[in-house]
């Protein structure tokens, strides 16, 4: 067997060029006690923490291979929950440098709603799969899955004083869930369109937003505990546009509900599109809402004291009006009692804030000083911050900070490396940016047109960009300015290729022309013609039969290749500079100027060489190998073809991507090349063996272009991310680095098959528990690769325990048979590795190492025969006091899911009976220990508080002394001033 060819692996090193993804939201985070200075926003699969004042990234929370879809911050301000597109949820600890603490997996599709309760101990998540799951953050496991919605869950909130959850969905319903009994006890059907947002102003007031250009306001009334409370009166507030009497009838019919919810009015919005976000600050003093436009509308929520004042003023005005109309006193009293505040008066509209683009998400806070802060994430990869004081006007909010420099506003369509691999150029629809490869920081930004092609000029102090309107723009990178803007073509300038001798370049455009240019030096007008600057001039033109999509020089400068819109690639000789009649172009122009009018096309003095055809759709990109022997083409027909430059024959045609191939490029000095496509994948290929080497995973949507460094050590690529209907984009750049790790194809194929198997497991349905008949509540977790592996480890540990136990029984039987003590058998090496522990202790250790969020699913995967073996072990664990809480959790879960088999087993009945008494005694001991520790902590707290009271007076004395010192200092300044004045 021959040696297997090995390759070197490329690994991702950085994601840059993105401020915030348009598929997620933005939230304020509190770091080191500073509120309003930092914000967290998703950046593709990672989460960035930005310093809003310095516009700097201070922390990166690394994600996995799926995009982040939603963020939520806990009440303790130190725990950040991130939901992903694959349905998983990860919790990060901000105090420990952003380390992930736990991962929850329960949804089958993207997480769309994520909220903590007021204590921070529970987390609720809603998804596109229409399920709602409540997670226990402390014990790190899922409590239950709530089923009932028929559409994507859009928002979820906890009530503060009641154990009730409220969820909204695209099925037009708002559901109330009793978390004590895990069932939906009330459904609001007042909306006729999708519910996109909801917010609890208080436990008695709910605001919901749908497709209409208004917010619905609902009053929540709780019934008495004895059930004797009367249904609340249906209020028809002034200015409320109620939908009819159907809701009232339904409310009257539901006499057994815990609460009643009545629509009391609407809040008019200026926007006419659907609501995207409805959010309040922590103190519930201000309400914000936005749609698909670039405005955030703000409402001030009146406090109870303010409501009383407004009501008194309103009654006073009504009384004066009644006196002026000479009404009777009894009628006056009745009218005054009937006066109430409308919804518009309780929740006042104070205006709108205009952002610099379409808004994706926002967050709002109120500082201790009363200052309001609003942070806005825009669809154009930009973050803006607004600040204002007071609730009456928004004039002071127009001065804002921005986090915009480290990113493009639109898609990056062109990339290139410099010669020493230290800098990267990127061009988009509005600017050209230069990035430092080591730090991934943007070091220069120059405004430009819509860039389609981009190259460094020899010397690398300048660059040339081809734009969508056919212009060539020359930039001075050091000065950050544009030197020339030439109208080179009449159509899109799709491609620029620098001549290998570095003396010029050629351009290909949609106007069916290939133009050749040479570099030149001209007088610098800004320096009063005292110095020269770089420029370029047009020397000749080649007119083709169709639009040119890509042009390339062969590295030996012998050929030029051009791909046309007719799906062909034409190759020309480029070494001759003689015209058809044997004279050079310059000589022809001098001798026969009448033949060369300015509007005539001058044909290139080369000869047609090859025409390569075979693609069914146009070739969008191509490249020639360093030795000028191979040409690789990537087409919109999703195929890659490898051609020989000697005879123009097609060596191989390969189906490469699931969508159009956007870019292909050879690794310098090799026959290896990379391709990228609209399917979001980057693939590496071997042009000699025609093998697919590896797929670089990381992108989540269309990959527009890629660039390889001259050394071949780095690959940088750009992606475009459409946001469903709104067609927003994610402008992130990814850097891939070649390592010294070998890559073997057989091993790579095996790893790909394992990944496919893992993905098939992760997309499984929630496990059905035998005996569970409720359609609303099921097990929270789903079967994953981790849960299957955890079950396998538990079963292996039980097998080892059984083997060691059997071995010890045989040893004891041999000792009794020979009536003497024999040498003990050698224990299993695994037990020695764990410190020579007993087999039962080893099973306990294995059980403890299974993730808390995966434990129940792992126990559910185990066959019932292993469950029978695990019950005696759980009895040993509880008797010995080993992990009593964990053992009880396993015991209760197994009893619940295997109740039928266990009760019919005569062998387990004595074990269950002993566990009943043992469990009660051990749990009682744990409660006593916790109670003792709690009492000790409370005593220590009292001692500390008493000490602080004494310290308080000391602080007051120090403040008095400081005030007295400042007063004396001020008096001294006055005396000195009077002396200087001669008084």
Automatic annotation (TrEMBL):
Ranges of biased composition (kind: Basic and acidic residues)? 224-233
Residues in a coiled coil are 794-821
Sorted alphabetically, the Gene Ontology BP terms of this entry are: maturation of SSU-rRNA
Listed A to Z, the keywords are: Coiled coil, Repeat, WD repeat
Q: Where is the composition biased (Acidic residues)?
A: 242-255
Instruction: Outline the WD repeats, range by range.
Output: 104-145, 146-187, 188-221, 486-520, 612-653, 654-695
- Any one GO molecular function term: snoRNA binding
Name the InterPro entries for this protein. Answer: SSU_processome_Utp12, TBC1_cilium_biogenesis, WD40/YVTN_repeat-like_dom_sf, WD40_PAC1, WD40_repeat_CS, WD40_repeat_dom_sf, WD40_rpt
Q: Which domain of life is it from?
A: Eukaryota
According to the entry, every stretch annotated as the Small-subunit processome Utp12 domain falls at 840-942
- Mind naming one GO cellular-component term on file for this protein? Pwp2p-containing subcomplex of 90S preribosome
Q: Which PROSITE patterns match?
A: WD_REPEATS_1, WD_REPEATS_2, WD_REPEATS_REGION
Q: Where is this region: Disordered?
A: 224-255
Q: Known PANTHER family for this protein?
A: WD REPEAT CONTAINING PROTEIN 3 WDR3, WD REPEAT-CONTAINING PROTEIN 3
The family annotation for this protein states:
Belongs to the WD repeat WDR3/UTP12 family.
Q: What is this protein called?
A: WD repeat-containing protein 3
Q: From what organism does this protein derive?
A: Holothuria leucospilota
Which taxonomic lineage is given here?
A: Eukaryota, Metazoa, Echinodermata, Eleutherozoa, Echinozoa
């Amino acid at each position: 067997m021959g040696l297997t060819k090995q390759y070197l692996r490329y690994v991702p090193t950085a994601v840059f060029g993105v401020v915030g993804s348009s598929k997620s939201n933005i939230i304020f985070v509190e770091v080191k006690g500073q509120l309003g200075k930092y914000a967290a926003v998703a950046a593709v699969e990672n989460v960035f923490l930005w310093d809003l004042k310095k516009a700097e990234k201070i922390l990166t929370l690394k994600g996995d291979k799926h995009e982040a879809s939603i963020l939520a911050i806990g009440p303790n301000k130190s725990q950040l929950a991130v939901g992903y597109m694959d349905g998983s949820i990860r919790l990060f600890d901000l105090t420990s440098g952003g380390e992930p603490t736990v991962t929850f997996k329960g949804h089958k599709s993207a997480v769309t709603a994520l909220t903590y309760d007021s204590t921070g101990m529970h987390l609720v998540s809603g998804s596109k799969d229409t399920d709602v799951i409540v997670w226990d953050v402390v014990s790190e496991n899922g409590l239950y899955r709530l089923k009932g919605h028929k559409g994507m869950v859009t928002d979820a909130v906890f009530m503060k004083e009641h154990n009730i959850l409220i969820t909204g969905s695209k099925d037009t319903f708002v559901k109330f869930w009793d978390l004590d009994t895990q069932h939906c006890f009330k459904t609001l059907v007042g909306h006729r369109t999708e519910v996109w947002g909801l917010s609890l102003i208080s436990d008695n007031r709910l605001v919901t937003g749908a497709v209409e250009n208004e917010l619905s306001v609902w009053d929540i009334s709780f019934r008495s505990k004895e059930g004797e409370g009367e249904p609340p009166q249906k209020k028809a507030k002034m200015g409320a546009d109620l939908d009819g009497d159907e809701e009232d009838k339904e409310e009257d019919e539901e006499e057994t509900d815990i609460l009643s919810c009545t629509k009391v009015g609407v809040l008019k919005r200026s926007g006419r599109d659907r609501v995207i976000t409805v959010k309040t600050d922590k103190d519930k003093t201000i309400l914000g809402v936005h749609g698909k436009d670039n405005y955030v509308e703000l409402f001030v929520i009146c406090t109870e004291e303010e409501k009383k004042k407004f009501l008194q003023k309103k009654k006073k005005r009504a009384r004066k009006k009644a006196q002026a109309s000479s009404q009777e006193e009894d009628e006056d009293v009745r009218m005054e009692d009937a006066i109430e505040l409308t919804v518009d008066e309780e929740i006042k509209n104070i205006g709108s804030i205009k952002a610099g683009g379409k808004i994706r998400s926002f967050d709002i806070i109120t500082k201790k000083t009363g200052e309001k802060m609003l942070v806005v994430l825009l669809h154009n990869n930009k973050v803006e911050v607004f600040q204002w004081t007071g609730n009456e006007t928004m004039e002071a909010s127009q001065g804002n900070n921005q986090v915009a420099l480290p990113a493009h506003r639109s898609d990056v369509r062109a990339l290139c490396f410099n010669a020493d691999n230290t800098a990267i150029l990127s061009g988009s629809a509005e600017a050209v940016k230069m990035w430092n490869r080591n730090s991934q920081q943007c070091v220069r930004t120059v405004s430009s047109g819509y860039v389609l092609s981009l190259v460094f000029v020899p010397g690398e102090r300048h660059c040339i960009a081809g734009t969508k309107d056919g212009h060539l723009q020359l930039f001075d990178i050091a000065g950050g300015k544009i030197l020339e803007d030439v109208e080179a073509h009449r159509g899109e300038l799709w491609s620029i290729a620098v001549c290998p001798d570095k003396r010029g370049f050629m351009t290909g455009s949609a106007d069916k022309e290939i133009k050749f240019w040479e570099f030149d030096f001209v007088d610098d007008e800004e320096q009063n013609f005292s110095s020269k600057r770089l420029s370029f001039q047009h020397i000749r033109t080649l007119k083709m039969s169709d639009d040119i999509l890509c042009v390339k020089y062969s590295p030996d400068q012998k050929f030029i290749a051009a791909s046309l819109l007719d799906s062909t690639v034409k190759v020309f000789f480029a070494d001759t500079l003689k015209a058809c009649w044997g004279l050079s172009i310059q000589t022809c122009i001098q001798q026969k100027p009448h033949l060369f009018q300015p509007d005539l096309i001058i044909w290139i003095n080369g000869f047609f060489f090859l025409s390569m055809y075979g693609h069914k759709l146009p070739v969008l990109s191509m490249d020639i190998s360093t030795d000028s022997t191979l040409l690789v083409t990537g087409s919109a027909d999703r195929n890659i073809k490898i051609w020989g430059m000697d005879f123009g024959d097609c060596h191989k045609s390969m189906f490469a991507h699931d969508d159009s191939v956007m870019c292909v490029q050879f690794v310098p000095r090799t026959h290896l090349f990379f391709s990228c496509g609209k399917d979001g994948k980057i693939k590496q290929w071997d042009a000699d063996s025609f093998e697919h080497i590896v797929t670089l995973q990381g992108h989540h949507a269309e990959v527009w272009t890629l660039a390889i460094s001259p050394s071949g050590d780095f690959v940088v690529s750009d992606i475009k991310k459409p946001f469903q209907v709104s067609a927003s984009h994610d402008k992130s750049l990814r850097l891939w680095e070649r390592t010294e790790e070998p890559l073997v194809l057989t091993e790579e194929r095996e790893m790909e098959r394992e990944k496919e198997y893992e993905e098939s497991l992760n997309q499984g349905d929630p496990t059905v528990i035998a005996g569970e008949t409720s359609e609303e509540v099921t097990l929270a977790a789903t079967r994953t690769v981790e849960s299957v592996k955890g079950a396998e480890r538990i079963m292996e540990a039980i097998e080892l325990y059984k083997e060691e136990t059997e071995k010890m029984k045989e040893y004891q039987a041999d000792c009794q048979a020979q009536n003497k003590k024999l040498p003990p058998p050698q224990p299993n090496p695994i037990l020695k590795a764990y410190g020579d522990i007993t087999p039962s202790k080893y099973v306990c250790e294995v059980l403890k190492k299974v993730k808390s969020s995966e434990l129940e699913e792992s126990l559910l995967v185990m066959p019932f025969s292993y469950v029978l073996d695990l019950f005696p072990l759980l009895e040993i664990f509880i008797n010995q006091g080993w992990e009593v809480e964990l053992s009880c959790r396993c015991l209760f879960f197994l009893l619940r899911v295997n109740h039928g088999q266990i009760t019919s087993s005569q062998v387990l009945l004595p074990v269950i009976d002993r566990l009943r008494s043992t469990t009660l005694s051990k749990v009682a001991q744990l409660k006593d220990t916790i109670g003792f520790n709690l009492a000790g902590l409370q005593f220590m707290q009292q001692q500390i508080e008493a000490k602080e009271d004494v310290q308080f007076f000391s602080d007051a004395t120090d403040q008095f002394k400081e005030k007295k010192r400042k007063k004396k200092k001020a008096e001294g300044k006055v005396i000195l001033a009077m002396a200087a004045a001669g008084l």
